[in-house]
Structures are given as structure tokens and as C-alpha cells.
Amino acid sequence: MKRVVLAGALAVISMTGVAHAADMQRPQAMPAKAPMYMAPVYNWTGMYAGINAGYGWGRSNFNNAFGGTGSFDVDGAVVGGTIGYNWQAGQTVFGLEGDVAWSGIKGSTSAGICAIGSCETRNNWLGTVRGRIGYAFDRVMPFVTGGLAVGDIEASALGFSETKTKAGWTLGGGVEVALAGPWTAKAEYLYVDLGNRSFAGGTNVDFHTNVVRGGLNYRF
Question: Which end of the chain is less packed: N or C, by CB atoms within 10 Å?
């Protein structure tokens, strides 16, 4: 009888060991990892409008059949509004932008043919219509730009003044940064050449300027 009981106990112990070994060999499932969060990439496509302000400086001169003044400095502030549209393809951004600004750029000279009385060149307004090409680093976009420039040239001498509108060209570049929500901010440089214009008495006056300005845009 004792032998039967001992044999039964050994059998139970052996079966328990085998079951435990089977459990040890069964592979355990690995816990699933949460998917990695990917921040959305900023898209520049769409219409926008905004304001801009800055400073312009450049050169002008008077000349006619009797001689000239030589180039003299002109400078002043500019403040205006902007409207435009961007198309983004990959990281390349194509855009069309127009702006018009009040201008306080002016300068005077008493050299050469203006020795009798001071001559002054003044630019009262300045507008541009430009293409833009940028390269988007997500929310930062450097760009180059160029196109048509239009503005007035007001020439004054010996107490007389005459104003004419002149079309020319502009070329420049800058960088635009996306802020919170629909807002973006930019800084840009433009070289503007309005060429020369003939005034009464056969006097030609030319005007070109460099403009550095900052802008704040709202995207629709």
C-alpha cells in the first residue's frame, strides 16, 4: 500500500513540473507601442493681406542741355498695404504679390544747374506687382521677388513743382515666418528703379531707391 501511495505522489510531482516547463516555454506577447506623433507640416497655399512699413534710401539727379547736378541722396519712410496669393508644390512656393505705399522719400541739392536755387526730388507713393519664389522649411520661407514698380516723381526747382507717374522695375528678397494661427511676419529688401522722366524745360530727373521693410500678413 505504501508503495502505491508513493508512486502516485511521484506521478503528480512529475506532471506538475512538465506543465510548469511548458508555461515557461510559451512566448509572451510584447506590449504594443503607441504611434509616434507627427506634427502637421505648414502649408503656404492661399490668399493673404497685410501691412508693411520701412525705410528707403537712394539717389536722384537733374540734367538738361546746360548740365546736371550729379547724383544726390534721397531717403525717407514708407508705409503701405499688401495683398497676395501663394501656391505650394512640395517645398517650393510660388506667389504673386502687390502692394502700394505712401512714401516720404525725398532729397535736394544746390549743385550744378541748381546752384541758383535748390532742386528737390520727392516720391509720394510707390507700388509694386511682383512674382515670388520661396523655399519652405516648414514655417520659415526665404524667397526672392521681382517685377513691376510704379510711382510718382515730383521735381521742384525755383519755386515751381511738377509731378509725373513713372513705371520701372524692382528686384529683391527676404524671409517670411508663420506665427500663431493665420498670421505671418516678413522682412524684405527691394531695389526700385523708376528710371528718368522728362519735365518742363527739357530737364530729366531720375530716381532709384533701396527699400528695407517689415510686414505683418493675415492668411485667409
Answer: N
